[in-house]
Amino acid sequence: MLSTTANFDYSSFSGASRLLIEALGASDTASYHSKINKRVKELEREALRIGQEISALKSCRNAASGTNRLPPEVLARIFLFVSKFHTCTDILNVAHVCRRWRSIVLDHRQFFSDLQGSTILQSEALTMTMIGMSEPAPFSLIWTGAKGSTECEWPPNMSALLSATYDHRLKSLVFWKSDQDEFILSEVFCNWYDRKSRSPLLEKLSVMNIVIDGYYKSGGKLPDTGVLKSGHLKQAMFGREHTLLKGGAPALRDMTLSHVGLAWKGLPFGPSLVHLNLLEDHRFGNACRPTTSEFIDTQADASTRVN
User: Fold this and answer.
1) Which of 6, 222, 237, 256 has the fewest Cβ atoms surrounding its Cβ within 10 A?
2) pLDDT digits (tens, 9 = 90+) for 223-263
3) What is the mean pLDDT of the chain?
4) Together in a domain, 145 and 279
5) ∠ CA(193), CA(256), CA(205), 5° rounding?
6) Given this model, what pLDDT does residue 275 score?
7) Which pTM does this prediction carry?
8) Domain around 133
């Protein structure tokens, strides 16, 4: 016997395997290789079967708990509540606990309808998978920059993501830029200022194009005037001639825009708007402020739409 097998304790191996190991060094090499390959394939099939058996038993073990005695509707509500405090990819882990949990997760599309920055940074494939699995539930997107991530690059699929969802499923968009982000707003939102662009389900729009150290650590509180006048802002904004969602955003209730460079007439005002928060760079002067007549016309137009 050759020393190749000296480090193996094969006393517990099957008889068929031991015979082949003991025959190492046989003169008929071709025949020996053929027998080895055949035995390896047999063991691989057996390993696959054993793996499936172990997986099934683990699933049964996980399912045999007090929690699993709850009705599916109750478990779904628990999952939804807990998912608010985790990234949306965590729900994929829940789906692997047992077959019952997987069935509950896959039956509730809203589990996959809240995409946050960490998910978007992981991969474009994961992002698009989550979007597909959430169909046709309304869709929410949160991007608060690369801060706190292992990557600081701007996710290239963000523009495509916004373009693909804003016009029929997007319900909420929170889009804040951090120190590390390098992008041009007009490119990211390229489809949003097309003359036919509209977002019928959009209820919340928050775009923060502000770069100040410690800003996000403060919980997103708006900076005071003194901080704004420091000039620590990057000029990556919309053109003031752009109009966001010119086709309308009838469900929009909450809009916060910080240092995006849009003129008043370019904002997506609608009949449902109840909260408006606008901040602009002091260097623009009154370029983004409405005139008295523009402000009055906006109010009158909103009243007309409501009526």
Assistant:
1) 6
2) 555 555 544 454 456 666 778 888 888 999 999 888 777 88
3) 74
4) yes
5) 55
6) 92
7) 0.65
8) 113-306
> Taking the CB of residue 268, how many other CB atoms lie within 10 A of it?
24
Structural contact between residues 198 and 219, judged by C-beta atoms closer than 8 angstroms: no
**Residue 281 in tokens:** 């760079």
Dihedral through CA 181, CA 183, CA 186, CA 191, nearest 10?
-90
Q: How far is CA 101 from the centre of its chain?
A: 21
Same domain, 35 and 135: no
Same-domain check for residues 125 and 216: yes
The C-alpha atoms of residue 86 and residue 101 are separated, in whole angstroms, by: 17
pLDDT score recorded for residue 160: 62
Could you give phi then psi for residue 159, rounded to 5 degrees? Answer: -60, -45
Residues 46 and 126 in one domain: no
Helices (H) and strands (E) in the chain, counts: 11, 6
Residues 32 and 104 in one domain: no
174 and 25 co-located in one domain: no
Which residues, at least 6 apart from 100, have a Cβ–Cβ distance to it below 8 Å?
A: 63, 68, 72
133, 280: one domain: yes
DSSP structural state of residue 36: H
The total domain count for the chain is 3
